[in-house]
């Protein structure tokens, strides 16, 4: 029987990575959509600092971001004190901590495409909806959200892909615990440390193919949305 070049621990890491990416993407869509809507519509003086805060994970080194999230989740951090008070315990070096860090690290990849899509709609469709006596909430769900579908699709693909490829943040927050926090990127790191280059090649090559597929998918989704949307 042919032996796989990667062991069971790698398959476990792949499964955990897909689970983490799926949960991160779903959570981000819930958080990012109203935040992107607010950023696209508001004239508040808080718009610029909040937009900068959302963008911060794009420019910070992942280890810096991961370090401060780790401090936040720790026993002296606000989130750590809250989770301990709630009886949940500390989230650092657990899947819950990994999920929290992934959501923060991937936030701009979800917010910005949706925000740009909302801004591209303009005010005219909403004004027309208002003249038809649509309430603001109805106009949002029945007019703005369908028109922003290209941005939502792009946000979904980018959030999933970025979570799959994240390394620095997950290593800082989750470490490299098999079955709990070890994901594909940290599994490759482990293979390289153990000088198991054949297994590292297989996993790294799979990541290259996956990233290429993501870019092709984005291009396909954009063309399809351009044909469907007016």
UniProtKB/TrEMBL annotation:
Location in or out of the cell: Cell inner membrane; Cell membrane
Record keywords: Cell inner membrane, Cell membrane, Membrane, Molybdenum, Transmembrane, Transmembrane helix, Transport
Transmembrane segments: 20-39, 51-73, 85-111, 199-221
Gene3D superfamilies: MetI-like
Matching Pfam families: BPD_transp_1
GO cellular component: plasma membrane
The ABC transmembrane type-1 domain, residue ranges: 14-220
Gene Ontology molecular function: any one: molybdate ion transmembrane transporter activity
Membrane topology (UniProt): Multi-pass membrane protein
Task performed by this protein: Part of the binding-protein-dependent transport system for molybdenum; probably responsible for the translocation of the substrate across the membrane.
Family according to the record: Belongs to the binding-protein-dependent transport system permease family. CysTW subfamily.
UniProt xrefs under NCBIfam families: modB_ABC
Designated name of the protein: Molybdenum transport system permease
Organism: Orrella marina
Taxonomic lineage from the root: Bacteria, Pseudomonadati, Pseudomonadota, Betaproteobacteria, Burkholderiales
């Amino acid at each position: 029987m042919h032996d796989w070049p990667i062991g069971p621990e790698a398959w476990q890491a792949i499964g955990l990575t897909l689970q983490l990416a799926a949960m991160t993407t779903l959570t981000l869509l819930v958080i990012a959509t109203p935040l992107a809507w607010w950023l696209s519509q508001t004239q508040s003086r808080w718009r610029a600092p909040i937009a900068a805060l959302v963008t911060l994970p794009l420019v910070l080194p992942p280890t810096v971001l991961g370090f401060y999230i780790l401090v936040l989740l720790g026993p002296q951090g606000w989130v750590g004190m809250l989770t301990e008070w709630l009886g949940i315990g500390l989230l650092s070096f657990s899947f819950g901590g990994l999920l929290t860090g992934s959501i923060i690290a991937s936030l701009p990849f979800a917010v910005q495409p949706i925000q740009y899509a909302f801004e591209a709609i303009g005010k005219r469709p909403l004004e027309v909806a208002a003249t038809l006596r649509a309430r603001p909430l109805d106009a949002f769900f029945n007019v703005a959200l369908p028109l922003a579908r290209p941005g939502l699709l792009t946000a979904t693909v980018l959030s999933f892909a970025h979570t799959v490829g994240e390394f620095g943040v997950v290593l800082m927050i989750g470490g490299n615990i098999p079955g709990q926090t070890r994901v594909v990127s940290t599994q490759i790191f482990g293979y390289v440390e153990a000088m198991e280059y054949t297994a590292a090649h297989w996993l790294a090559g799979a990541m290259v193919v996956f990233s290429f597929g993501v870019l092709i998918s984005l291009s396909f989704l954009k063309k399809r949305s351009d044909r469907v949307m007016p």
